Amino acid sequence: MKLSYNWLNDFVDLDDINAGELAEILTLKTAETEGIYSVEKHFSGIMSARIEKCEKIDSKYFKCTVKADRDYIVVSGAPNTREGLITFFVKPGGMIDGSEIGRRDIAGTVSEGMLLSGRELGINNDHRGIIELNSIEPGIDIDDIIDFNDHIIEIDNKSLTHRPDLWGIYGFAREAAAILGRNLKDYHVFDISDIDADSDFPIEIRDSELCYRYAGIKIGNIRADESPLNIQARLMRTGHVPRNIIVDLTNYVMTELGQPMHSFDGSKIERIIIDSTEGSTQYTTLDNEERELPSGTLMINSQDGPVAIAGIMGGGNSEINNNSTSLFLESAAFNAGAIRKTSSALGLRTDSSSRFEKSLDPEYALTAALRYILLLSEIQPDIEFRSALTDINFNPFTRNIIKTDTDFIRNTIGARISNEIIIDTLSALGFDTDIDNNKLTVTAPTFRSTKDVSIREDIVEEIARIYGYNEIEASLPAMTLSVPDFNTQRDIAVKIKDILAEQFDMNETDSYIWHDNDFLKQIQYNTTCSIELKNPVSSVNT
Question: pTM of the predicted model, to two decimals?
Fold first, then answer.
């Protein structure tokens, strides 16, 4: 999991806390951090520039006079190089991905610096030409134009297994706000009453045990344009390759909230049916791989057949393309066990499946859809709603209620924590509390009720970690020690091994339970009589 420091700062004020301090705080109180990547240590001297003059010097290169903080002579091989173009430029002495850019001879001309593509800047994967900017004055630092000089905090995924709410930026912002005693900013979404469409979209859930909730809406008058550079940069830094605004926003909201979504080409979707397969089925996914689906695989179907493997990957027959003018947006909640089982059977693990298998909060399905609509409407104000936001919720989620008392919390932690601190801490983490004398009733939020907080010891953990384990005075536990009974059988076994080794010159061997298949073939060992693992640790080992 990759956290963008600047993105976190959208939701909680971190201006006086640097990325290193934040990473240390999160490690102590929330989840283990593995490292920090600081963009400014690898990129520098980058600014906007305008190509004032451009002449072709051979079949491949252009000689350009570029205006930035001053005039430079730059040689460019990008096919879209032309006079009047405003782009990003790194001057001599600046850095691109840790490499210093200097003056060098290209095609007989000394080039001062370099005009930059999106891939060279690390904000997208496009290397077809240099970036084309809108009307921006030359000589402006890149960080004053886009959200560039970020710090990426790497989180150990194993420490998030029990915390589905932390698979998004906003969940970590909530944690940071609680730890630092600061306000968590609102997560703004589109007002559902402003969706001016009368008819619901036809959605049918035939397997409600595997699909808890499904929200969908059809939107027209869309354009599959490139995303704004800020969105592209944030996605690239958090592990996603930008494609177009329609697809990018699903990844953007997923990274932000933790809720996966999928956008289908609206011209291919007239209705949705969610059902499980009967018998083995062949289906081609977005990566152009034909996959054999086991019986019982939950599928998203349109009027013409399947269009996605639920919670894992869409199909090539309904993907957004450059000519798409409408979309159908899906945001759902699926059974975690079913997604994990299908993902393992197919050997296909995606960003979507890795989140669904953690038991996501079903309430996020509607929130994420409205967030997507808000962001899209801000970028493309002329979108048209072709249906209402249809939300089918078969299993309204119940929040866990835990009864405990503050004395139990204090005695278990071993610190005299006041009732006020206990209540404030739980409230900052999204819990509702009701206290009567020292009796405490805690109602967990839905995003902590799916698989995390259910017993009173969980409440103790929440208080202790935010309070700070390092603030608790260490003391030895009070316990009675007694000499254990002598284990006669173990003593006999050790003596027998000593006799076999010392008197009969024998050795004891503990071997691995699997071997390299290539090695077994070399020694002509027949493995057909062995038991083969269905899901081996490695595809080359059994």
Answer: 0.87
